Amino acid sequence: MKNFKLLYTFVIQQTLSCIFPIAIFGILALTKKINIPFIPRYDLIFILCLLVQYGMIKFKLETFKEFKLSLIFHLIGLILEIYKTKIGSWAYPEFSYLKINNVPVYSGFMYSSVASYVIQSYFRLKLNFVNWPKKITTILIALIIYGNFFTNHFYYDIRWYIILGIFLIFRKCYVEYHLRNIKFKMPVIFSYLFISFFIWLAENISTFLGAWRYPNQKLSWSMVSTSKITSWFLLVIISIIIVVNYFKNKENNLNINRAV
Predict the structure, then answer these.
(1) 179 within 8 A of 11, measured Cβ to Cβ
(2) DSSP labels for 163-198?
(3) Quick one: 179 exposed, middle or buried, by C-beta within 10 A (0-12, 13-18, 19+)?
(4) Could you tell me which residues come within 8 angstroms of residue 184 by beta carbon, excluding any fewer than 6 positions away?
(5) Which of 89, 172, 209, 231 has its CA 20 to 30 A from that of 141?
(6) Residue pair 56/22 in contact by the 8 Å Cβ criterion
(7) Contacts 24+ apart (CB under 8 A), 230-234
(8) For residues 176 and 157, what is the distance between their CA atoms, to the nearest angstrom?
């Protein structure tokens, strides 16, 4: 019975941490079925995402400081999207007024929703990262990962060397989390893998709902390649590095009340 209660608490807290991503899935599904005259679908998605973001702050699911932090992820994602679509890695085929170089502005919310999940989990589960590498080391890792997403198209893709380095650097690091005032811990590498796998599943749902389209999905939908898990693995690490470095060692950073 005790284990069931702990599992129930974990599922509830994870679900609450996923409010923004879940809302985006709902918006994608809704806009796929319902058309509003004179408002392109991508623009409607952007408007609804803004309303969700406003609601999260209004109902104290997220603080304004956390919202500002998520804007960093929105910008990081948007820049990456502009580059990747330009070289044909994927596309947004539908018309939109709110596009930058053929990338709808709403796409940045896909990245900030990952940040929202990390931030929400950080507080709801009272995360504590033990044996976290030096700040300068994690910043360099994040910059190398992000840079490789751009250079791998005209230079050698070094992602597997980066992943090997990550396993070495984070091998002693683990994350503590709390359920019903009981402390648990897991290797931080496992948490990276766990999150990236579920984002890959979410990506399959998103492409099925027409959020964007890979070249092999041009004629009909098919599963997203499992190789994308490594991409999400690396992007998740960037997200966690930014969030942890921002909040770690800040006084009273775990005393923010979350709406339930």
Answers:
(1) no
(2) HHHHHHHTTT-EEEEEETTEEEEEEHHHHHHHHHHH
(3) middle
(4) 176, 177, 178
(5) 89
(6) no
(7) 230/159, 230/163, 230/196, 231/149, 231/159, 232/195, 232/196, 232/199, 232/200, 232/203, 233/163, 233/192, 233/193, 233/196, 234/145, 234/148, 234/149, 234/159, 234/162, 234/163
(8) 33
Domain assignments of the chain as residue spans, ordered by start? 2-247
The predicted-structure confidence for 34-64, as pLDDT tens digits, reads as follows 888 899 999 999 999 999 999 999 999 999 8
d(CA 225, CA 117): 23
pLDDT at position 77 over 60: yes
The answer, yes or no, to whether residue 112 has pLDDT greater than 70, is yes
70 three-class SS: helix
Radius of gyration of the chain (CA): 19
* E strand residue ranges, the chain: 99-100, 103-104, 128-130, 174-179, 182-187
In a 3-state reduction of DSSP, which class is residue 108? helix
Cα–Cα distance measured from residue 259 to residue 243, given in angstroms and rounded to the nearest whole number: 20
Amino acid at site 150: F
User: The whole model's pTM is what?
Assistant: 0.89
Q: CB-based contacts of 250: which residues, under 8 Å, 6+ apart? A: none
Segment 187-246, tens digit of pLDDT: 999 999 999 999 999 889 888 888 888 888 877 888 888 888 999 999 999 999 999 998
Burial 124-137 (b: 16+ CB within 10 A, else e): bbbbbbeebbeeee
